[in-house]
Automatic annotation (TrEMBL):
<dbReference type="Pfam" id="PF00171">
    <property type="entry name" value="Aldedh"/>
</dbReference>
<dbReference type="InterPro" id="IPR029510">
    <property type="entry name" value="Ald_DH_CS_GLU"/>
</dbReference>
<dbReference type="InterPro" id="IPR016163">
    <property type="entry name" value="Ald_DH_C"/>
</dbReference>
<keyword id="KW-0560">Oxidoreductase</keyword>
<dbReference type="InterPro" id="IPR016161">
    <property type="entry name" value="Ald_DH/histidinol_DH"/>
</dbReference>
<dbReference type="InterPro" id="IPR015590">
    <property type="entry name" value="Aldehyde_DH_dom"/>
</dbReference>
<protein>
    <recommendedName>
        <fullName>aldehyde dehydrogenase (NAD(+))</fullName>
        <ecNumber>1.2.1.3</ecNumber>
    </recommendedName>
</protein>
<keyword id="KW-0520">NAD</keyword>
<dbReference type="InterPro" id="IPR044638">
    <property type="entry name" value="ALDH7A1-like"/>
</dbReference>
<comment type="similarity">
    <text>Belongs to the aldehyde dehydrogenase family.</text>
</comment>
<dbReference type="InterPro" id="IPR016162">
    <property type="entry name" value="Ald_DH_N"/>
</dbReference>
<feature type="domain" description="Aldehyde dehydrogenase">
    <location>
        <begin position="33"/>
        <end position="492"/>
    </location>
</feature>
<comment type="subunit">
    <text>Homotetramer.</text>
</comment>
<feature type="active site">
    <location>
        <position position="264"/>
    </location>
</feature>
Length: 511
C-alpha cells in the first residue's frame, strides 16, 4: 500500500491509528464502539474510529444549537468568505484526500480526485451564492404598504451520507447550509468513516483560524446516530443520501415530527441507444456509466435500451470493450475498475446475476469474483452484461454493482416507456442525432427522471445543476440552481408606512 503513498496521505490528513469519531469542531471525543475501516482495494485495515454514544450525540447537538445563535448573525457574504477559505484548504489537500477516497471507498484515483474537485467546485458555487440569497418583493393591494419575502437560516441541519460519495455529498450539503447560516451535523457512512475524519480535520483548521465557535461543523459516527437524527426535533432539516429502503424509514420518521427532508435515494438509470446514435460516443458513455466506480454510483448506467436495428452491433462493440477492461487496485492508474465496497456487496452482485438467469436473462458478458494476487480483499468482480426484459423483478431493482441489462426496442415511444417503467427516477439519457427524438425524450411526454441527458451518459453530475430524482429516488434536489432554498425558512413580511390600517380584501372592521 505504501507504494501508492497512502501512509503519507493519511499523515497529511491527520489520521491516526485510532480516531475519535465525534467532533464539535476542534474538540474531538468519543465513547462508543470501535468501527474498523478496511480498504476494499487491499483488504488491509486503514484505521479505527470510535463511534458516538447517545451522550456524545447530545453533547454535539447542544453545541451545534448554541453555535447556531452566533453563526446565523455572521453576514452571509462573510460566511461565504469562510467557505472560500475551505475551498482553498481543499485545493491544498486534494491529492491526499483524493487518494484516501480511492483507498477507503475503492473508486479509481481519478474518480477520487474528481470527487474532491467537486467539493472545491461547490465551495466556489457557495461563495457566489452567499451574495445571492434572493427573495421576491410583491406589490401590496393596500396603499402605503410594502410586501416582500426573505430567507432566514433554518438551524441545525442533519446530513446523513452514503459510502459511495464519502466526501462530495457532505460538501454539497454543508457548504450550502453554511452560507445559508445553518450549522451542520454530519453522520457519515460507517463504511467510510476515515474520509469524514479527514474532512473535519481540514475544516477545523479553517474555522479555528477565523475564530468561529465550536459547533458549526460537527460529526457523529455509528449507525445509532442515524436514528437519533431522524427523531431529533432540534433538526428542522435532515438531508439523507442512501438507499430507498433506509430513505423511506428516514422520510417517515422525520415527517412524523414535521421536519423537512432532502432525499437522494437509489437510481435505476437507463441509456436509450437510438438507430440515429453515434455509436462511438455510446461506447464511452455506456461503458463508463456501467463499470465506473464498479457500478456503485447512484447514476450508474444499469439498463441499455437499444434500437433493434443497431442491437447486434452495439452488443458486439460492448463485448470487445468489456474484454479490454482492466480490473484491479484503484490507486493504479492503469486499471479501469476497482473493487466493490465489501464482501456483502459481492454477494448481492452474485445473487442478482443468479436471479436474472432464473428469470430468463441471457448472459452476454460473464460475471464472477476475481481471486489471486491483487484480489485478496475478495471485493473484485467482473463487470457483466445480461440480455433481459424490463419487467424482470431484478431489473426493476437497483443492484449496486457493475451489472448492465440490455433491452431491445422498436419505436421511440416504446423506448421511453421502458426507460420510465421502473420505480426509480434519477438519471436518464438518449444517444441520438435526430432532433425529433431528442425533443420528445426531453418533453413532458419523455423521461420522468430528475436528470435527462442527450448524447452523454447517465453517470456523473456537474455543480450548478440541481441534482436529484423523482419517484423512489425521493424528490430531493441538491447542490446547484436554487437548491439552497431547502436550507432556509421563508418569511413573508408586510410593512405599513401609512397612517391608516386598511385590512386585506377590503374587509371593514370599524368600532
Ligand atoms: P445505505 O442506505 O445503506 O446507508 C446510507 C446512510 O444511512 C449511511 O450513513 C448509514 O449508516 C445510514 N443509516 C443506516 N440506518 C439508518 C437509520 N435507521 N436512520 C438514518 N440513517 C441510517 O446506503 P449506502 O449503501 O451507503 O449507499 C448506497 C445507496 O445510496 C444506493 O442506493 C445509491 O443509489 C444511494 N445514493 C444516492 C445518491 C443520490 O444522490 N440519489 C447518491 C449516492 C448514493
Amino acid at each position: 500500500q505504501d507504494s501508492f503513498g497512502i501512509e503519507e496521505a493519511l499523515k497529511q490528513l491527520g489520521i491516526q491509528e485510532v480516531n475519535e469519531g465525534t467532533s464539535t469542531g476542534n474538540n474531538w471525543f468519543s465513547n462508543g464502539d470501535i468501527i474498523e475501516s478496511y480498504s476494499p482495494a487491499t483488504g488491509k485495515l486503514i484505521a479505527k474510529v470510535k463511534s458516538s454514544t447517545k451522550e456524545d450525540y447530545e453533547a454535539v447537538v447542544s453545541k451545534a444549537t448554541e453555535a447556531f445563535k452566533t453563526w446565523r448573525m455572521v453576514p452571509a457574504p462573510k460566511r461565504g468568505e469562510i467557505v472560500r477559505q475551505i475551498g482553498d484548504a481543499l485545493r491544498e489537500k486534494k491529492d491526499a484526500l483524493g487518494k484516501l477516497v480511492s483507498y477507503e471507498m475503492g473508486k479509481s484515483l481519478q474518480e477520487g480526485l474528481g470527487e474532491v474537485q467537486e467539493m472545491i467546485d461547490i465551495c466556489d458555487f457557495a461563495v457566489g451564492l452567499s451574495r445571492q440569497l434572493y427573495g421576491y418583493t410583491m406589490h401590496s393591494e393596500r396603499p402605503q404598504h410594502r410586501m416582500y419575502e426573505q430567507y432566514h437560516p433554518l438551524g441545525v441541519v442533519g446530513i446523513i451520507s452514503a459510502f459511495n460519495f464519502p466526501v462530495a455529498v457532505w460538501s454539497w450539503n454543508s457548504m450550502l447550509a453554511w452560507v445559508c447560516g445553518d450549522v451542520a451535523v454530519w453522520k457519515p457512512s460507517s463504511k467510510t468513516p476515515i474520509c469524514a475524519v479527514a474532512c473535519q480535520n481540514i475544516i477545523n483548521e479553517v474555522f479555528k483560524k477565523n475564530d468561529i465557535p465550536e459547533g458549526v461543523s460537527c460529526i457523529v459516527t455509528g449507525n445509532a446516530s442515524g436514528d437519533l437524527i431522524n427523531n431529533d426535533k432540534r433538526m428542522p432539516l435532515v438531508s439523507f443520501t442512501g438507499s430507498t429502503r433506509i430513505g423511506r424509514h428516514v422520510s417517515k420518521t422525520v415527517a412524523e415530527r414535521f421536519g423537512n427532508t432532502i432525499l437522494e435515494l437509489g437510481g435505476n438509470n437507463a441509456i436509450i441507444v437510438s438507430e440515429h446514435a453515434d455509436l462511438s460516443m455510446v461506447l464511452v458513455g455506456a461503458v463508463f456509466g456501467a463499470v465506473g466506480t464498479a457500478g456503485q454510483r447512484c447514476t450508474s448506467t444499469r439498463r441499455l435500451i437499444v434500437h433493434e436495428s443497431v442491437y447486434d452491433k452495439t452488443i458486439a462493440t460492448l463485448k470487445s470493450a468489456y474484454a479490454q477492461l482492466k480490473i484491479g487496485n484503484p490507486l493504479d492508474a492503469n486499471n479501469h475498475v476497482g473493487p466493490l465496497i465489501d464482501t456483502k456487496a459481492v454477494q448481492d452482485y452474485l445473487n442478482a446475476i443468479e436471479k436474472a438467469k432464473k428469470e430468463g436473462g441471457n448472459i452476454i458478458v460473464e460475471g464472477g469474483v476475481l481471486e489471486g494476487e491483487g484480489y485478496e480483499s475478495g471485493c473484485y468482480v467482473k463487470p457483466c452484461i445480461i440480455e433481459a426484459k424490463n419487467e424482470f423483478e431484478i431489473v426493476q431493482e437497483e443492484t449496486f454493482a457493475p451489472i448492465l441489462y440490455v433491452l431491445k426496442y422498436s419505436t421511440i415511444e416504446e423506448a421511453i416507456e421502458i426507460q420510465n417503467g421502473v420505480p426509480q427516477g434519477l438519471s436518464s439519457s438518449i444517444f441520438t442525432n435526430n432532433v425529433r427524438e431528442m425533443e420528445l425524450f426531453l418533453s413532458q411526454a419523455g423521461s420522468d427522471c430528475g436528470i435527462a441527458n442527450v448524447n452523454i451518459g447517465t453517470s456523473g453530475a456537474e455543480i450548478g445543476g440541481a441534482f436529484g430524482g423523482e419517484k423512489e429516488t425521493g424528490g430531493g434536489r441538491e447542490s446547484g440552481s436554487d437548491a439552497w432554498r431547502a436550507y432556509m425558512r421563508r418569511q413573508t413580511n408586510t410593512i405599513n408606512y401609512g397612517t391608516e390600517l386598511p385590512l386585506a380584501q377590503g374587509i371593514k372592521f370599524d368600532f
